[in-house]
């Protein structure tokens, strides 16, 4: 595509749009996610273009919301909600406003106070706190905890803001899950899988661990660990894909040896452990009881 031509998104009518005739805007050089809007097929960010198109064909007060809003903020979603090319863009409009059904757009009409709306990366979207609350109606609680941890870790909202949105949402969908998750959040968590492991542990009756704590032997720094219980000197680490290289495996092995020599019991978990959360929690429980 010529660099002088528009990337879009832009609206198009029978007379064309963005300086193009309707015929020019209907070629393979443009994508038409919904009637009356286009963006260039070589757009550098198709996901954002799809969202901008959805807003262009919606009411002026419409905003990105739900899973779309969470993805726009970069918040973690469960894999079965993870957005793909066929997933409609979720758009929220204030209750009482009209909206037309369109391909590629999932409209919602909800109570939407002004302070629940902001702009991020050039698009109108629900605030991180409101996005987290709305997603609490879509996900199991351990994923709600992982998203809440990410909101706090990246300073997208304060604990007080999350507490305030839960108080505001009395009897709304998802509020019971959000209320249960709220005291279990920890902004020190640095990855969704760490958060999910910690969520299963606490929901299974274990005390909250310390997250991403630096461990020392005397004055010598050994490691920064995913989570630990200081009184029992038990560490739980989650090994994701980043740990698959041979070089990383060697570093991890040396790290674990150093921690064990310093008196720590190290439990290493993988995605396979999350397939049986009850057994995973029981394993951590036995370790804590044995050490105490």
- Shape, please? elongated
**Strand count:** 12
Q: What is the count of structural domains? A: 2
Oligomer: single chain
Strand proportion: 15-25%
Most strands sheet = 4 strands, mixed
Describe this protein's structure.
There is one protein chain. The chain is of the alpha+beta class. It has 2 domains: 132 residues, no CATH class; 100 residues, VSR Endonuclease (Endonuclease, Chain A), CATH 3.40.960. It contains 9 helices and 12 strands. The strands form 4 sheets. The protein has a 4-stranded mixed beta sheet with strand order 9-10-11-12. The chain has a 3-stranded antiparallel beta sheet with strand order 1-3-2, with helices on one face. It has a 3-stranded mixed beta sheet with strand order 4-5-6. The longest helix is centred in the C-terminal third of the chain and has 16 residues. 37% of the residues are buried.
Could you list some keywords that capture this structure?
292 residues, alpha+beta, Endonuclease, Chain A, four-stranded mixed β-sheet, 9 helices, 20% strand, elongated
Briefly characterize the structure:
This protein is of the alpha+beta class and 292 residues long. The chain has two domains: 53-184, no CATH class; 192-291, 3-Layer(aba) Sandwich (Endonuclease, Chain A). It is built from nine helices and twelve strands.
């Amino acid at each position: 595509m010529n660099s002088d031509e528009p990337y879009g998104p832009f609206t198009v009518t029978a007379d064309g749009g963005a300086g193009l005739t309707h015929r020019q805007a209907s070629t393979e050089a443009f994508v038409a996610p919904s009637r009356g809007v286009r963006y260039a097929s070589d757009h550098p960010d198709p996901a954002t273009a799809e969202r901008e198109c959805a807003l262009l064909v919606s009411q002026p007060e419409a905003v990105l919301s739900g899973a779309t809003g969470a993805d726009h903020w970069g918040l973690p979603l469960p894999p079965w909600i993870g957005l793909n090319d066929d997933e409609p863009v979720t758009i929220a409009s204030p209750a009482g406003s009209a909206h037309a059904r369109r391909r590629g757009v999932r409209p919602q009409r909800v109570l939407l106070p002004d302070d629940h709306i902001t702009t991020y990366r050039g698009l109108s979207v629900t605030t991180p706190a409101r996005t987290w609350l709305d997603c609490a109606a879509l996900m199991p609680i351990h994923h709600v905890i992982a998203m809440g941890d990410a909101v706090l870790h990246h300073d997208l909202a304060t604990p007080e803001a999350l507490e305030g949105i839960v108080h505001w949402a009395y009897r709304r969908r998802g509020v019971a899950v959000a209320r249960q998750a709220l005291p279990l959040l920890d902004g020190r968590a640095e990855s969704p899988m760490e958060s999910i492991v910690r969520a299963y542990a606490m929901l299974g009756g274990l005390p909250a661990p310390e997250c991403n704590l630096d461990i020392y032997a005397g004055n010598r720094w050994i490691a920064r660990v995913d989570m630990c219980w200081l009184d029992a000197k038990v560490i739980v680490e989650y090994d994701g894909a980043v740990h698959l290289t041979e070089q990383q495996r060697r570093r991890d092995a040396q790290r674990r040896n150093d921690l064990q020599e310093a008196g720590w019991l190290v439990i290493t978990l993988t995605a396979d452990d999350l397939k049986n959360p009850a057994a995973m929690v029981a394993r951590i429980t036995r370790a804590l009881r044995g050490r105490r």
